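Model: You mentioned two targets. I'll fold them one after the other.
Researcher: Yes, keep them separate.
Model: Target one:
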Amino acid sequence: MGRVQDKVVFITGAARGQGRAEAVRLAEEGADIIAIDVCEGIDSVDYPLASRADLDETVRLVEKLGRRIVALPADVRDPAALQAAVAEGVERLGRLDSVVAQAGIAPIGRAEAQAFMDVVAVNFNGVVNAVQAALPHLPDGGSVIATGSTAALMQSSDMTSRPDFGKLGYSFAKRSVAAFVNDLAVALAPRRIRVNAVHPTNCNTDMLNSEPMYREFRPDLENPTREDALPAFHVMTAFGLPYVEPRDIADMVLFLVSDESRYVTGMQMRVDAGAIVQRRPQQPQF
């Protein structure tokens, strides 16, 4: 018997990166998965987003573990699409126990307002839409998990040097996720549905390993490579590490889906190798 044996978990952004790692880790511990991803690009994002082939690979990895998975292309910006995906998954798998609102983008380095709007629509509105789609199916004692970022727990980005409205929107969206989790935990407490956020530091995914991120960490170079940026990644941890792995985030999600966290709610769970504590921030104001 696994730690989440026969639970059904709905995961957004499941085609690769943290979402895929979460699907696989939960399947290893006995869960069945409803997986969605947009499987197409967004104009303001200057790195390739996941494809249908990526989502198919998540399916293969979950089924290889002997677990069931319903995988559908859907955009977290579209509430009706999410509601339809969850309804189909529940019909085929029989129940829903948890939602992991994981989908996210980082249109870093963009100076147009649309980049701000796009990242808020995906990284914050997408979380709300995923929870809204899942909530009618969640039983008392279920679990809601939202992916934030250490950016949620730091001061807002400084726009005085150069306009970067994608970065500004990313910070806003992740801070909004933290506040949403805090207050939704109160609203769902009568049903003992726990609501928590996971805040990663740099994570070794396609989002981090992209040209916009290389430029963010090495603004002194015109066309930095991963090798150029890698030494600078260390500023985001206190452990001297450049990043954590998707599996590290998946392990925290596993705990929050499992009954081991039955009395854990309203928490901002950092998987950041000391990124926040080394800055000794004041208590964030939601």
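Model: Target two:
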Amino acid sequence: MNRHPLPAALLALAAILTTNGCVMPHPPAATAARPLMTWPDLTKRPHPVADATVAYGSDPLQVIDIWRPAGAGPHPVVLMVHGGCWQTEIADRRLMDWIADDLRRDGVAVWNIDYRGVDRSGGGYPGTFQDVGAAADRLARDAATYDLDTTRVVAVGHSAGGHLALWLAGRAKLPANSVLRAAAPLKIAHVVSLGGLPDLEATAATPENGCGTEIVARLTGVAGGARPDVFADTSVPRLLPIGVGQDLVNGREDRIIPYGMATDYVAEAKAAGDRAVLHTIPATGHVELIAPETPAWAETKRLIRAALAK
């Protein structure tokens, strides 16, 4: 039973992106035998349900779904961050439910966060970032209640959520004068970015990206006297090295997130001294990255298990 119907906007994602001035071409068939997945291929299947939902604020979007495995803990945790071009109208946390359920079945708890997108009151800068930070830090507060192990936390983000997952791992490097700084941010042991957009400056300069370029200013705010550099506390390359292992999983046929965004970021992270590895999945687009039955997700689970075993 689908207790939480997905936004109708998600079922027509291509149309929404086009309406917002973004371009999301229909991906070509990867092979004659296996065409690339579409959003309805994922969203029209039976919808699993989380074990609990907790609020970290008063807005309906300031919530976290908890997927807790059966049996005694403490359970290792995946902190999950959805994408959708940082816009709630395009996607919310429920887009990640199928892979969250898959991890739960495999004995890994999932802390699946939501946040106000740039198209919601209070979203943008600093609200979207503050929401993501507050949702992550709530894990430390509630870990004992749900028998979760905060010494084993892997952040996993898809698309725009890949940027936010990496940003969460780098919060200790935020400038001292940033309103986004937290006194004791949740320690993240590893990050897996699935078709992510880690470099906001590159995103704003790349019309080929499926989110478009104008969305970045809505996320970061506009430069001014008090904030001459809007990327200093929002774009992950500005925080490098973040001192956390990073795996980027990207589909070679992804037509939403240009492949060069992954290769360029990995080169930057490695040059700064971080351990960053790009895993290229052939015959794979953007949707396959969060579909449980795909080679892309199998590789992601392998990376999660390896990180949790350290």
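Researcher: Noted. Anything on target two?
Model: The radius of gyration is 18 Å.
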